[in-house]
Amino acid sequence: MKIILAPMEGVVDYAMRELLTASGHYDLCITEFVRVVDQVYRPAFFRKICPELDPELNQGGTTRAGTPVRVQLLGQHADWMAENAAVAADLGSCGIDINFGCPAKTVNRHRGGAILLQEPETLYKIVKAVRDAVPGDQPVSAKMRLGYATADLALDCAHAIESAGANMITVHARTKMEGYKPPAHWHIIDDMRRHISIPVTANGDIWSRPDAENCRRVSGCDDIMIGRGALCLPNLASVIKVNAAPMPWKEACDILILYACFSRPSHQRGYLPSRIKQWFSYLKRHYPEAHILFEKIKRLRQLDDIITLIRQER
Ligand SMILES: Cc1cc2nc3c(=O)[nH]c(=O)nc-3n(C[C@H](O)[C@H](O)[C@H](O)COP(=O)(O)O)c2cc1C
């Protein structure tokens, strides 16, 4: 079984990848999406989204725990996607992932993300162009939802992605219209998986070890991707893979403090306090203690005050 840490724009950044993969058992991370419209980004831009590619950090495209990181691109123009994919691949990204699942209105209005699931032939063109632009030893993967309004075209989309030469597909088992509303329809992934021959990774609503077992059984997939669950329980991958004990609250606090210390000069004032508060909204799902602590920090603006309180309460 492989476990992939899901791309989450505005949430799973460099620091988060470092901290979550440090607890082990992640096989791959996908970056937040790079929105491709009508330009080729410079290497510096890719290194900002994916500092693991920065030669100065000397990480060779992996987190410091050794988990490979793959750049994700989102866009509708095959040629621009291909040119950007070539740059990211050349910088050492562990392959390229293509986002066909983003439900954001602004992105969909400009024909990016999940809206393309209505046009399997466009998916084909994009994946083919990216595959042709990236050296053969660097995988190309695509991440899709079941469809836009319905799952009627799910298999056509998966076929298009496969026949264009992708090496793997991740399926978030909901349509765009379903947003994040439970349940995730893992059984539909099973229908798709049976008709295609490249590996399929199942995604959606895996919050615990039993969820992972159910998802793998129902979808028939070996591999899974976890997103929000990984933020709720920072060692969820180890819990799933080797039945590790769930991380105690005290250790989760230590990770929060480390996250706060990942400050970078480029971060604007308020960036880290708001990111820490955002992380609390996930931690609250697993740790009752997080509710109490969040009430105390929610109005604090200074990072130091927040860190002091977390240290006191842990
Ligand atoms: C805040 C947030 C940001 C996300 N950003 C991305 C993204 O940049 N690219 C992408 O393919 N999916 C993105 N997703 C979708 C997740 O990768 C994942 O498919 C979804 O959350 C379902 O998995 P989960 O139930 O394990 O969280 C995002 C989801 C959330 C909640």
Q: What pattern of helices and strands is seen along the backbone?
A: EHEHEHEHHEHEHEHEHHHHHH
Outline: globular
Mean pLDDT: 95
The end-to-end distance, rounded to whole angstroms, is: 34 Å
From the structure provided, what is the oligomeric state, counting identical versus distinct chains? single chain
> What small molecules accompany the polymer chains?
flavin mononucleotide
**Main sheet overview:** 8 strands, parallel, barrel
Percent in strands:
5-15%
The tally of strands reads 8
Identify the notable features of this structure and list them briefly.
alpha/beta, eight-stranded parallel β-barrel, single chain, about 325 residues, binds flavin mononucleotide, 14 helices
Explain the layout of strands and helices.
Layout: E1 3-5, H1 14-22, E2 28-35, H2 43-49, E3 69-74, H3 78-90, E4 96-100, H4 105-109, H5 120-133, E5 140-147, H6 154-163, E6 168-175, H7 186-193, E7 200-203, H8 209-219, E8 223-226, H9 228-232, H10 236-242, H11 249-260, H12 271-286, H13 288-297, H14 303-313
Parallel strand pairs: 1-2, 1-8, 2-3, 3-4, 4-5, 5-6, 6-7, 7-8
Helix pairs in contact: 3-5, 5-6, 7-8, 8-10, 11-14, 12-13
Bound molecules: flavin mononucleotide.
3D structure, described in words:
The chain is α/β, with parallel strands linked by helices and 314 residues long. The longest helix has 16 residues, at 271-286. The mean pLDDT is 95. The chain has helices at 14-22, 43-49, 78-90, 105-109, 120-133, 154-163, 186-193, 209-219, 228-232, 236-242, 249-260, 271-286, 288-297, 303-313, and strands at residues 3-5, 28-35, 69-74, 96-100, 140-147, 168-175, 200-203, 223-226. It contains 14 helices and 8 strands. Helix 1 links the parallel strand 1 and strand 2. Flavin mononucleotide binds next to strand 2 and helix 9.
